[in-house]
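Exercise 7. Given the encoded structure of a 116-residue chain, write a plausible sequence.
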């Protein structure tokens, strides 16, 4: 009997995987904290890893911005000559003496993290 070539390459969805027991424990803990099964949690992580990033993420995430690029009165930050709204991830206010990394971009709002 000749099998259809499409069926030969169809994946079952099962992936046997060996990982370090300590990593297994950490992953199970994270899954539990999110109220997910370990399988569901791992599927979510894998999907996030292969999902295309947004245009904003590709353009801005990873950029480092110095404190002199902030307009504190209007809560704006300038990148490549354009002003964006921002949120600070790990500080309550901008310190002009510090630098910040863009960790997320959502439309015209950037999330920044103060570099230590």
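Solution.
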């Amino acid at each position: 009997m000749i099998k259809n070539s499409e069926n030969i390459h169809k994946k079952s969805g099962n992936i046997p995987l060996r990982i370090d027991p300590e990593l297994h424990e950490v992953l199970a803990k994270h899954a539990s904290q999110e109220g997910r099964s370990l399988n569901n949690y791992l599927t979510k992580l894998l999907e996030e890893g292969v999902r295309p990033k947004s245009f904003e993420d590709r353009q801005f995430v990873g950029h480092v911005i110095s404190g002199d690029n902030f307009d504190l009165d209007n809560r704006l930050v300038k990148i490549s000559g354009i002003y964006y709204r921002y949120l600070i991830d790990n500080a309550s206010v901008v310190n002009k003496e510090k630098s910040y990394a863009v960790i997320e971009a959502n439309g015209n709002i950037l999330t920044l993290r103060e570099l230590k």
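Remark. The CA atoms of residues 1 and 7 lie 13 Å apart. Students should compare their own answers with the one above.
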